[in-house]
């Protein structure tokens, strides 16, 4: 399943985001979701107005300082309370990132494919990836999270296989721990809703740490929250910290990116864009006749081979 990579300005021709397009507004409630839905100018202006109004309802400074001083603590408390009962397995991974089915590469090239999943939580990406690639003896999956309770829960599950997996605690804004993979050893790094959990001032350090582990020719696969996603627009009082950085009710942080912003960040590390796309999806509650607009950013970036 190949995507358009020659012209990165194009949307992926393999269309991993779905092919149900809304061409008749009168039929909007016939399905639960529609793909690649463009916003009207009025919707864009309304979204900007909502975000501007949030500026007058910021989190108080003392609370903001507390949340920003130890962001991992909020996620650690989250996993201590929820264990593995909250998030669903990401069984959609291969639809958006078909590269992660490494069976063919492993079998044909007789090499070990090494992947690092960042922000692994309790294994909702880890275990689906291993299940897909269970016929391969040459996949090794590193999984890290900065919440010790997440790693504890992941490693306690029956499906955890230390012969094929290495789960470890790491705040990617800090130096790499001993358990981390060797420099320039990884074929893929997977970041799903990871960069949005980091303060914008620390993202460059996090990317520098990650890129040092990716081998020349290796690929960064990412998905994260887009600017004016429904989640951002629904935030009320005491959620905005600064800019486009918010805290959820449980204290965890979330930042909303523009596509050009993420591309520029990765460009600072000489990463070459293969594919980048804003996944605009209209989710429909047919029973309540409610429309919900979601926006995610998906990208694939290649680390150049030094000449």
From TrEMBL:
Top EC class of this enzyme: transferase
EC number(s) recorded for this UniProt protein: 2.1.1.-
One GO process term, biological-process aspect: tRNA methylation
Catalytic activity: cytidine(32) in tRNA(Ser) + S-adenosyl-L-methionine = N(3)-methylcytidine(32) in tRNA(Ser) + S-adenosyl-L-homocysteine + H(+)
GO-annotated molecular function: tRNA (cytidine-3-)-methyltransferase activity
Compartments where located: Cytoplasm; Nucleus
CDD domains registered for this protein in UniProt: AdoMet_MTases
GO CC list: cytoplasm; nucleus
Key words, A-Z: Cytoplasm, Methyltransferase, Nucleus, Transferase, tRNA processing
Principal location class: cytoplasm
Stored PANTHER family: METHYLTRANSFERASE-RELATED (PTHR22809), TRNA N(3)-METHYLCYTIDINE METHYLTRANSFERASE METTL2 (PTHR22809:SF11)
Quaternary context: Monomer. Interacts with SARS1/SerRS; interaction is mediated via tRNA(Ser) and is required for N(3)-methylcytidine methylation.
Function of the protein: S-adenosyl-L-methionine-dependent methyltransferase that mediates N(3)-methylcytidine modification of residue 32 of the tRNA anticodon loop of tRNA(Ser), including tRNA(Ser)(UGA) and tRNA(Ser)(GCU). Interaction with SARS1/SerRS is required for N(3)-methylcytidine methylation.
Family in the record: Belongs to the methyltransferase superfamily. METL family.
Protein name: tRNA N(3)-methylcytidine methyltransferase
Source organism: Caenorhabditis briggsae
């Amino acid at each position: 399943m190949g995507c358009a990579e020659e012209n990165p300005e194009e949307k992926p021709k393999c269309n991993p985001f779905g092919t149900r397009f809304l061409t008749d507004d009168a039929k909007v409630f016939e399905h639960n979701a529609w793909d690649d839905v463009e916003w009207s100018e009025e919707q864009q202006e309304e979204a900007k107005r909502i975000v501007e109004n949030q500026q007058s309802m910021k989190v108080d400074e003392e609370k903001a300082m507390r949340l920003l001083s130890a962001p991992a603590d909020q996620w650690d408390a989250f996993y201590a309370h929820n264990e593995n009962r909250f998030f669903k397995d990401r069984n959609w991974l291969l639809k958006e990132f078909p590269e992660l089915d490494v069976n063919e590469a492993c079998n044909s090239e007789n090499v070990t494919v090494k992947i690092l999943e960042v922000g692994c939580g309790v294994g909702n990406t880890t275990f689906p990836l291993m299940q897909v690639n269970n016929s391969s003896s040459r996949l090794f999956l590193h999984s890290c999270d900065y919440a010790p309770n997440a790693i504890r829960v992941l490693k306690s599950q029956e499906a955890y296989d230390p012969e094929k997996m290495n789960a470890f605690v790491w705040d990617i804004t800090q130096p790499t721990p001993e358990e981390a993979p060797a420099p320039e050893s990884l074929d893929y790094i997977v970041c799903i809703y990871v960069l949005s959990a980091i303060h914008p001032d620390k993202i460059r350090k996090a990317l520098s740490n990650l890129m040092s582990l990716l081998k020349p020719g290796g690929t960064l696969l990412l998905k994260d929250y887009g600017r004016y996603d429904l989640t951002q627009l629904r935030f009320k009082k005491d959620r905005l910290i600064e800019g486009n950085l918010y805290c959820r009710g449980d204290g965890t942080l979330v930042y909303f990116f523009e596509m050009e912003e993420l591309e520029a960040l990765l460009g600072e590390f000489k990463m070459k864009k293969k594919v980048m796309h804003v996944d605009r999806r209209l989710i429909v509650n047919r029973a309540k006749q409610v429309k919900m607009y979601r926006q995610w950013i998906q990208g694939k970036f290649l680390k150049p081979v030094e000449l």
